Amino acid sequence: MTVYFIGAGPGAADLITVRGARTLAACGVCLYAGSLVPRELLAECPPDARLVDTAQLNLDEITAELLRAHQEGHDVARLHSGDPSVFSAVAEQMRRLDAAGVPYEVVPGVPAFAAAAASLKRELTVPTVGQTVILTRVANRATAMPDGEDLATLGRSGALIVLHLAAKYADRVVDELLPHYGADCPAAVVAYASRPEELIIRGTLDDIAGKIKDAGVLRTAVIMVGRTLGAEQFRDSHLYSPERERHTC
Predict the structure, then answer these.
(1) Which residues form the Tetrapyrrole methylase domain (predicted)?
(2) How far apart are the C-alpha atoms of 62 and 123, rounded to whole Å?
């Protein structure tokens, strides 16, 4: 059997990839985070599939479920919200499977920041304005941030910063980024991106924290801060420039 770590996407059930949906439909066991993965996706599972909500399970219990399925000869769909490559906690699961000799594959998904950018109708990399995107989070009661990855340090780059799991700490975000970006720097928050209850908040570093509090946003949101969010006057990309040399076959 094989464990498939599948990116379920940012929330809307139809934003899972074709490969993800096909893989899900072929697995006899599905482990999913009930608090994050849309229930509609479970309809893609075979009618007789064993469904396990991992929202209340710890790593040992999740691993035990994966090993049980392996011993019973079932392929397993391990559904994670967004894309498994960032903030998904799959690394420790894959390490456990490596130690147990259980094969696995990763099926990418649409990450939350991409869905948020789509909702904002913004390209995050704009010619002459910004060509770098930093995906990060803030230190809280969970895993500490490594040395040199605090917001005050990352903010020195001036790059567009995308913060996951940070809505509750908006005041701290503003305090650490304000010296590098300025009070007038565009900022935005997208909560529940791609879902029916999606909420978009636009502002600047000067007022975004207050707007987040007023809206009551605490979780399932990304915060974006950077000049590309408000860029209007910029040079066209060289990609489609008439000055670019193009060769025909």
Answers:
(1) 2-208
(2) 37
C-alpha 127/C-alpha 109 separation (Å) is 27
User: How far out from the chain centre does Cα 102 lie?
Assistant: 26
Look at residue 248 in the predicted model and tell me its pLDDT.
Answer: 57
Contact (CB, 8 A) for 76 and 3: yes
Q: Is the pLDDT of residue 85 over 90?
A: yes
Contacts of 49 (CB under 8 A, 6+ apart): 27, 28, 29, 30
Average pLDDT (151-161) is 94
Q: Which residues share a beta bridge with 4? A: 77, 105
Instruction: For residue 236, give the 3-state DSSP assignment.
Output: coil
Are 164 and 137 in contact by the 8 Å Cβ rule? The answer is yes
pTM: 0.89
- SS (HEC) of 150-164: CHHHHHHHCCEEEEE
